[in-house]
Predict the 3D structure of the following.
Amino acid sequence: MNKITLSLLLCYVFLFAEAQNSHTLTFDRNAYRAGDKIVKQQVEFKDPGSSGKDLNWDFRLIQPINEEYSLKYFIPDSTIMTRLCGLEHNTRYYYSQQKDSLHATGYENSTTLMEYVQPELRMRLPFAYGDTLFSTFEGTGQYCHRLALHVKGYTRVEADAEGELLLPESETVQKALRVRTLRHYTETGKDSVEMTLDTYSWYAAGIRYPVFESIKTTLSKTRSTNEQGADAEADTTVFTTSFYYPPEKQISQVETEPIPLDDLIADLGAAAVFTEAQLLPNPVVDNLFINFKLTRAANIWFTVHNNIGIPLCTTSPQSLEEGYHNTTINMSNLITGVYTLFVHVDDMVMRVNVVKK
């Protein structure tokens, strides 16, 4: 073996070892999912520290502020399966999630409605240490249905650190990946403000959502007076907080094996209407037969999606009366793999995995 061949071999071995020791976010394991509910705890702010590899973060001695801060994902309009909503702290955040990308498309609460005419790229998967994204976004909206709002800015996402993360209750993450999202924007309404939202998110292998986050909001270029009496401009930190996501409350959310229909993730309202369901057979070879009972009249249809969310089979909506019903979905043209069946009940959605042989 000559020196060049040996050098190339050693290089491949080194790169393979690096890949084995690194943590990569993927669509299957880390994309947002309708039906997931995450319970996180708001805690005192923890400084994220420096970037780099082989770091150590000790977040064991955190002080809780709010121990039941929940986040729920669902599909707000079952005719648009790529549109997802995250409900958090009485605000709805809207996303478009398809193929390998997640875009923010707007938000609304009791006082504010914002729609992005230029969506904001939040993530592109897979994403690993050293990867970066940059996007610009722009939106228009209203405050209290009277005052026009306009927002324009940019977002930079970087997987900037790896290391060991020590969490409360003796939880240790050996290969934590930290993702920094820097969001700088100007919002114009009655007044004009320039803000920076800096979010650090730590991910653990096998857990879909972050296990820890630190957030800092800064008001840019506030005018002040320096020691010599002259005017100066400085950034002002207006808000800081951190969130701890207990891993034991997330593990059940990332199961990728097929699950029985009895355990399907569902809107509680849909589960009360669409009952006694059976999928026959599962795994399926050609036709999937679905038997079910409706506890009241409802508009029903089914869609089958691949693992990146693209709909491949769709039935026509049917207005069905209370009682027992059945339908058939032809899956003979699909390749072998695991698919997601979405059950649409009026404006509610349920889902379950289906295996195609």
Q: What stands out?
A: The chain has a mean pLDDT of 84.
